[in-house]
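The material for today's practical consists of a large collection of protein records. A record pairs a protein's sequence with a compact description of its fold. Instead of coordinates, the fold is spelled out as a row of discrete tokens. We will come back to this pairing of sequence and fold again and again. Here is such a record, shown just as it appears in the course material.
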Amino acid sequence: MMLRRSTAPMTPMTLMTLTLLLLIAAALSTGASAQRSATGLASRLTKRPGSSSSSLSSSSSGGSTKSSAESDSESEEEIVIEDDARMDRGFLKNVEIGFSDIRMTLKQKKKKKEDRIILDGSIRGKARPGRMLAIMGPSGSGKSTLVHALAGRIKDSSRVRLHGSRYVNGAPVAGDSQLPSAFIEQDVTFFPHMTVKETLDFRVELRLGKKLGRSARDDVVNGLMEQLGLTGSA
């Protein structure tokens, strides 16, 4: 199927959709070792007897680990087949992330000022395996802060106070332990002067390099856009 190249700049809605697309692509591109790591993730991160409790332990959490890179000797056909096999196995289906009562406050530099509340502690939810979770809200409402907190990318300190609970498959996560995750920052991922297809082409080429030929990379990009209904924004 031939896709017409559009030179129109991406709209905010397209950027949001593309964000979710790249998150899914990053998750699906993780290695076959994620299936094994999923079963041991909860036991590695849960609290050990006698360990001191930390301010953050989460209600639902998940992640995936990187796979070992395929050898350069693999043919394009072998790489495509292996990638499809990972998708068929559904290696992320064993992980459920939960979180509750997530609260974050920022201590002001001036002692007379009250602490600034970033997350008010009323946030709870679950990220179920095999499903997409979208966190929506106005600018500055704490969406990115919440995602960073759930992934363990924010550490409790004298100025930043973080409280709440995180869980992996129902087991509490110890303190502010960082979870294995594929985290993509929007600001360093998108280029406003590039279309959806151009952005995906660029990312696929950087990640796979010479392991896939031009036609094989086009098939990967076109397949993702077709699955998510982005062919009209290409």
User: Anything to note?
Assistant: The chain has two domains: 1-30+182-234, 40-67+91-181. Strands lie at 97-106, 116-127, 160-168, 171-172.
